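Exercise 7. Predict the structure of Thiopurine S-methyltransferase from Kangiella sediminilitoris.
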Amino acid sequence: MDYDFWNNCWLRPTQPFHLSQAHHFLVKYYQQYFDGKDKVLLPLCGKTRDLLFLSDQKIDAVGVEFNQHAVEEFWKESGIRPEITKVDNGVRYDAAHIHLWLSDFFQLHKKDTGSFQLIFDRAAIVALPLELRHKYASHLESFLSPDGQILLVTMDYDPKEMSGPPFCISERDLHELFPHAEITELDRHSILDSHPRWKELELSYLNEILYKIRLKH
Ligand SMILES: C[S@@+](CC[C@H](N)C(=O)[O-])C[C@H]1O[C@@H](n2cnc3c(N)ncnc32)[C@H](O)[C@@H]1O
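Solution. The predicted structure, encoded as C-alpha coordinates:
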Protein backbone atom coordinates (compact mmCIF):
# COMPACT_ATOMS: atom_id res chain seq x y z
CA MET A 1 0.00 0.00 0.00
CA ASP A 2 1.45 3.37 -1.02
CA TYR A 3 0.84 5.29 2.20
CA ASP A 4 3.55 7.86 1.36
CA PHE A 5 1.93 8.77 -1.94
CA TRP A 6 -1.41 9.57 -0.27
CA ASN A 7 0.15 11.19 2.79
CA ASN A 8 2.10 13.54 0.51
CA CYS A 9 -1.01 14.18 -1.53
CA TRP A 10 -2.95 15.20 1.59
CA LEU A 11 -0.11 17.56 2.67
CA ARG A 12 -0.69 19.71 -0.44
CA PRO A 13 -3.09 22.67 -0.19
CA THR A 14 -5.52 21.21 -2.75
CA GLN A 15 -6.16 17.75 -4.22
CA PRO A 16 -7.21 17.48 -7.87
CA PHE A 17 -9.82 14.81 -7.10
CA HIS A 18 -11.52 16.69 -4.26
CA LEU A 19 -14.69 18.53 -5.25
CA SER A 20 -16.22 21.48 -3.44
CA GLN A 21 -19.69 19.99 -3.84
CA ALA A 22 -21.34 16.58 -4.12
CA HIS A 23 -20.36 14.63 -7.21
CA HIS A 24 -22.32 15.37 -10.38
CA PHE A 25 -23.30 11.71 -10.87
CA LEU A 26 -24.48 11.38 -7.26
CA VAL A 27 -26.77 14.39 -7.66
CA LYS A 28 -27.95 13.36 -11.15
CA TYR A 29 -28.70 9.73 -10.24
CA TYR A 30 -29.79 10.30 -6.66
CA GLN A 31 -33.49 9.71 -7.23
CA GLN A 32 -32.95 6.69 -9.46
CA TYR A 33 -30.44 4.77 -7.35
CA PHE A 34 -29.87 6.29 -3.90
CA ASP A 35 -33.28 7.49 -2.78
CA GLY A 36 -34.88 5.03 -0.35
CA LYS A 37 -31.63 3.30 0.64
CA ASP A 38 -30.87 3.07 4.38
CA LYS A 39 -27.13 3.40 3.93
CA VAL A 40 -24.44 3.71 1.29
CA LEU A 41 -20.77 2.68 1.45
CA LEU A 42 -18.17 5.17 0.14
CA PRO A 43 -14.80 3.37 0.10
CA LEU A 44 -11.56 5.40 -0.01
CA CYS A 45 -13.65 8.49 0.61
CA GLY A 46 -11.07 11.23 1.30
CA LYS A 47 -13.02 14.21 2.61
CA THR A 48 -15.72 13.99 -0.02
CA ARG A 49 -18.81 16.14 0.34
CA ASP A 50 -20.82 13.18 -0.96
CA LEU A 51 -20.97 12.11 2.72
CA LEU A 52 -22.76 15.35 3.59
CA PHE A 53 -25.08 15.20 0.59
CA LEU A 54 -26.26 11.70 1.55
CA SER A 55 -26.61 12.54 5.23
CA ASP A 56 -28.69 15.61 4.30
CA GLN A 57 -31.10 13.16 2.60
CA LYS A 58 -31.19 11.09 5.85
CA ILE A 59 -29.22 8.24 4.31
CA ASP A 60 -26.43 6.79 6.46
CA ALA A 61 -23.18 7.50 4.64
CA VAL A 62 -20.43 5.07 5.65
CA GLY A 63 -17.01 6.30 4.51
CA VAL A 64 -13.61 4.62 4.82
CA GLU A 65 -10.37 6.58 4.57
CA PHE A 66 -6.92 5.78 5.95
CA ASN A 67 -5.45 9.28 5.96
CA GLN A 68 -6.01 11.00 9.30
CA HIS A 69 -5.51 14.49 7.89
CA ALA A 70 -8.28 13.92 5.31
CA VAL A 71 -10.65 12.64 7.99
CA GLU A 72 -9.91 15.53 10.35
CA GLU A 73 -10.31 18.07 7.52
CA PHE A 74 -13.68 16.56 6.65
CA TRP A 75 -15.02 17.17 10.16
CA LYS A 76 -13.39 20.60 10.44
CA GLU A 77 -14.84 21.78 7.11
CA SER A 78 -18.28 20.36 7.83
CA GLY A 79 -18.46 22.03 11.25
CA ILE A 80 -19.84 18.78 12.72
CA ARG A 81 -18.43 17.39 15.97
CA PRO A 82 -18.54 13.61 15.74
CA GLU A 83 -18.35 11.04 18.49
CA ILE A 84 -14.96 9.33 18.24
CA THR A 85 -14.48 5.64 19.11
CA LYS A 86 -11.26 3.67 19.00
CA VAL A 87 -11.88 0.27 17.43
CA ASP A 88 -9.62 -2.72 16.64
CA ASN A 89 -9.11 -1.76 13.00
CA GLY A 90 -8.85 2.01 13.45
CA VAL A 91 -11.02 4.85 14.69
CA ARG A 92 -14.71 5.41 13.97
CA TYR A 93 -16.22 8.90 13.81
CA ASP A 94 -20.01 8.99 14.13
CA ALA A 95 -22.42 11.85 13.59
CA ALA A 96 -26.17 11.73 12.88
CA HIS A 97 -26.03 10.08 9.42
CA ILE A 98 -22.27 9.91 8.86
CA HIS A 99 -20.04 7.04 9.96
CA LEU A 100 -16.47 7.63 8.92
CA TRP A 101 -13.90 4.90 9.53
CA LEU A 102 -10.29 5.99 9.79
CA SER A 103 -9.00 2.64 8.64
CA ASP A 104 -7.34 0.75 5.83
CA PHE A 105 -10.30 -0.42 3.72
CA PHE A 106 -8.78 -3.91 3.53
CA GLN A 107 -8.86 -4.13 7.35
CA LEU A 108 -12.58 -3.39 7.48
CA HIS A 109 -15.18 -6.13 7.00
CA LYS A 110 -18.91 -6.70 6.68
CA LYS A 111 -19.02 -7.71 10.34
CA ASP A 112 -17.96 -4.13 11.20
CA THR A 113 -20.39 -2.23 8.98
CA GLY A 114 -23.16 -4.64 7.97
CA SER A 115 -23.99 -5.18 4.30
CA PHE A 116 -25.02 -2.57 1.74
CA GLN A 117 -27.62 -2.38 -0.99
CA LEU A 118 -25.55 0.34 -2.61
CA ILE A 119 -21.85 1.18 -2.85
CA PHE A 120 -20.66 4.39 -4.51
CA ASP A 121 -17.07 4.12 -5.72
CA ARG A 122 -15.87 7.50 -6.94
CA ALA A 123 -12.11 7.98 -7.40
CA ALA A 124 -11.50 4.78 -5.38
CA ILE A 125 -10.74 1.87 -7.73
CA VAL A 126 -8.96 4.30 -10.09
CA ALA A 127 -6.69 5.28 -7.19
CA LEU A 128 -5.35 1.75 -6.76
CA PRO A 129 -2.43 0.17 -8.61
CA LEU A 130 -3.13 -2.83 -10.85
CA GLU A 131 -1.78 -5.37 -8.31
CA LEU A 132 -4.39 -4.33 -5.72
CA ARG A 133 -7.43 -4.04 -7.97
CA HIS A 134 -8.57 -7.71 -7.92
CA LYS A 135 -8.24 -7.79 -4.14
CA TYR A 136 -10.17 -4.51 -3.94
CA ALA A 137 -12.96 -5.68 -6.29
CA SER A 138 -13.62 -8.87 -4.33
CA HIS A 139 -13.38 -7.00 -1.04
CA LEU A 140 -15.93 -4.48 -2.33
CA GLU A 141 -18.28 -7.28 -3.40
CA SER A 142 -18.05 -8.80 0.08
CA PHE A 143 -19.96 -5.78 1.47
CA LEU A 144 -22.90 -6.15 -0.95
CA SER A 145 -26.25 -7.53 0.13
CA PRO A 146 -27.64 -10.17 -2.30
CA ASP A 147 -29.73 -7.59 -4.18
CA GLY A 148 -27.02 -4.93 -3.93
CA GLN A 149 -25.29 -2.95 -6.63
CA ILE A 150 -22.22 -0.81 -7.09
CA LEU A 151 -22.19 2.53 -8.86
CA LEU A 152 -18.58 2.91 -9.89
CA VAL A 153 -16.85 5.82 -11.61
CA THR A 154 -13.81 5.14 -13.79
CA MET A 155 -11.48 7.49 -15.67
CA ASP A 156 -10.78 7.51 -19.36
CA TYR A 157 -7.80 9.38 -20.86
CA ASP A 158 -4.95 8.72 -23.25
CA PRO A 159 -2.44 6.68 -21.14
CA LYS A 160 0.42 8.14 -23.19
CA GLU A 161 -0.36 11.54 -21.67
CA MET A 162 -0.52 10.57 -17.96
CA SER A 163 0.55 7.57 -15.91
CA GLY A 164 -1.86 7.78 -12.96
CA PRO A 165 -3.19 7.66 -10.35
CA PRO A 166 -5.92 8.18 -11.34
CA PHE A 167 -5.54 5.07 -13.49
CA CYS A 168 -7.46 4.41 -16.68
CA ILE A 169 -9.86 1.48 -16.24
CA SER A 170 -11.83 0.23 -19.25
CA GLU A 171 -15.13 -1.65 -19.34
CA ARG A 172 -13.13 -4.73 -20.33
CA ASP A 173 -10.98 -4.33 -17.20
CA LEU A 174 -14.17 -4.12 -15.13
CA HIS A 175 -15.40 -7.43 -16.60
CA GLU A 176 -12.12 -9.03 -15.50
CA LEU A 177 -12.35 -7.48 -12.04
CA PHE A 178 -16.02 -8.39 -11.55
CA PRO A 179 -16.38 -11.64 -13.58
CA HIS A 180 -19.75 -12.55 -12.01
CA ALA A 181 -21.40 -9.22 -12.61
CA GLU A 182 -23.65 -7.52 -15.10
CA ILE A 183 -21.97 -4.24 -16.01
CA THR A 184 -23.81 -1.34 -17.63
CA GLU A 185 -22.44 2.05 -18.62
CA LEU A 186 -24.85 4.71 -17.38
CA ASP A 187 -23.17 8.01 -18.21
CA ARG A 188 -19.93 9.84 -18.97
CA HIS A 189 -18.74 13.44 -18.74
CA SER A 190 -15.57 15.44 -19.26
CA ILE A 191 -13.72 16.72 -16.17
CA LEU A 192 -10.92 18.53 -18.02
CA ASP A 193 -12.06 21.85 -16.56
CA SER A 194 -12.50 20.58 -12.99
CA HIS A 195 -8.92 21.29 -11.77
CA PRO A 196 -5.89 23.24 -13.15
CA ARG A 197 -3.79 20.05 -12.75
CA TRP A 198 -5.49 18.44 -15.77
CA LYS A 199 -4.87 21.57 -17.86
CA GLU A 200 -1.19 21.64 -16.80
CA LEU A 201 -0.77 18.08 -18.08
CA GLU A 202 -2.28 19.19 -21.42
CA LEU A 203 -4.49 16.12 -21.60
CA SER A 204 -6.47 15.83 -24.83
CA TYR A 205 -9.43 14.36 -22.99
CA LEU A 206 -10.34 13.21 -19.50
CA ASN A 207 -13.71 11.63 -18.86
CA GLU A 208 -15.38 10.12 -15.85
CA ILE A 209 -17.60 7.15 -16.74
CA LEU A 210 -20.34 5.85 -14.47
CA TYR A 211 -21.06 2.11 -14.42
CA LYS A 212 -23.71 0.09 -12.67
CA ILE A 213 -22.42 -3.27 -11.43
CA ARG A 214 -24.84 -5.99 -10.30
CA LEU A 215 -23.75 -9.44 -9.26
CA LYS A 216 -25.35 -12.32 -11.19
CA HIS A 217 -26.65 -14.99 -8.84
C1 LIG B 1 -8.37 9.75 -5.27
S1 LIG B 1 -8.77 9.88 -3.60
C2 LIG B 1 -10.54 9.89 -3.69
C3 LIG B 1 -11.25 10.40 -2.50
C4 LIG B 1 -12.78 10.44 -2.63
N1 LIG B 1 -13.35 9.17 -3.09
C5 LIG B 1 -13.27 11.56 -3.48
O1 LIG B 1 -14.07 11.30 -4.40
O2 LIG B 1 -12.89 12.72 -3.23
C6 LIG B 1 -8.39 8.27 -2.98
C7 LIG B 1 -8.38 8.21 -1.47
O3 LIG B 1 -8.20 6.87 -1.05
C8 LIG B 1 -7.42 6.87 0.14
N2 LIG B 1 -6.91 5.49 0.24
C9 LIG B 1 -6.04 4.87 -0.59
N3 LIG B 1 -5.89 3.58 -0.23
C10 LIG B 1 -6.70 3.37 0.85
C11 LIG B 1 -7.00 2.24 1.66
N4 LIG B 1 -6.41 1.06 1.46
N5 LIG B 1 -7.88 2.37 2.67
C12 LIG B 1 -8.48 3.56 2.90
N6 LIG B 1 -8.24 4.68 2.17
C13 LIG B 1 -7.36 4.59 1.15
C14 LIG B 1 -6.40 7.98 -0.08
O4 LIG B 1 -5.85 8.47 1.11
C15 LIG B 1 -7.29 9.02 -0.81
O5 LIG B 1 -7.87 9.91 0.11
